[in-house]
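#struct-pred

JT: dropping the chains for the assembly here, can someone run the whole complex?
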Amino acid sequence: MTAKQGSCPLTQQELVDEYFMEYRAALVAVAAFLDRMDRSIDKNAEHDFRVIALRESLVELTSAEPERVERIQMILSDRDTTLMDERDSQSAYGAFNPESRKPAIEEA
Amino acid sequence: MQYIDMHAHMVSRSTDDYHAMSLNGCVAVTEPAFWAGFDRVSVDVFEDYFNRLTDFEPKRAAKYGIQHYTWLCLNPKEAEDRELTKEVLELIPRFLDRPNVLGIGEIGLNRVTRNELDSFVDHVKLALEYDQPIHIHTPHLEDKWKGSRVIVDTLLGIDGIQPDRVMVDHAEEHTVDFVLDNGFWTGLTLYPTTKASYARAIDILERYGTDRIIVASACDWGPSQPLAVPNFVFEARRRGHDEAWIRKVVYDNPKEFLSKSPKFKLPETLTTLKLNA
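RK: done, full complex below.
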């Protein structure tokens, strides 16, 4: 199954006129968050797995190729279908932490 | 617009929410069994929970003209506990004949562990044994793709699975294709931050079409919106979609999928309130 070109019923101009302000606000909010991180009293999460995934996703945002959302979703995903031996926490974190998972012991 | 909310955890919502949903066109909800926000310690708690889902909630909903149906299971967040799972699996058949029980759900995976998968398969086999439709929860956030893949691959390996009687819910952009390509139904659930937004749900529908996709609120005890479906309808109109396109994913499709259970009926006169229920 592939993406359908031309499936959005609005023209580009209509999309910009109707929605630009919403995404301008979202863009400025991300920039402000990154600036806030820089101004933090203790810059102790520069290598946090979520920050790394966020920065990698921001690069993807500037891509000229369609299906950016799928690629960003995959940047944020655990792409290994190996089962965990036991539950490590009840909740997800929003991005995959490669340090959090013990590799499953393969059965003979 | 009249709609069916195929996924709503109404035990976590107030009666005012039923009222608001009714005022906004809701004619039926289906409520999958889920996590209470803490791990339950005894099968007795599940017996109370299933009684609430099959007795109290349908009566509460009926006062606002809403048909209430439910799905039963031990949910994936508690499925690590294999002993409790076995006890709940023994309990479920006692409730399957109740008039508002549509099937087994929402089963699935949470952190995608070995025990969770074993508990998932046990529930699937119970559903097949009792000829029940299945409603499946896919994991959150970074576990979404992995868990959805494991669920689909596991289902395809089980004899007797009929994909058109299975809803693999909570799909997002990176999972919807392989769920649909394998013949299953899928759901787009509308959350403020952790699942699909109104705009992204519409994007997915524009790209993959409206066949076998259902839009629902999945409202629960966390940040969620019991009026998410009417909000989605508003956003889809704003995007330029016509009434038939919208109605298909909020009314026609859920009606078609839920009718896999012979118990699912909508009142002939949808505005009839059962004030004495």
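JT: nice. The interface with chain A takes residues 39, 77, 80, 110-117, 139-146, 149-150, 153, 172-174, 177, 180-181, 200, 203, 206-209, 238-241 of chain B (CB under 8 Å). Chain B has a mean pLDDT of 96.
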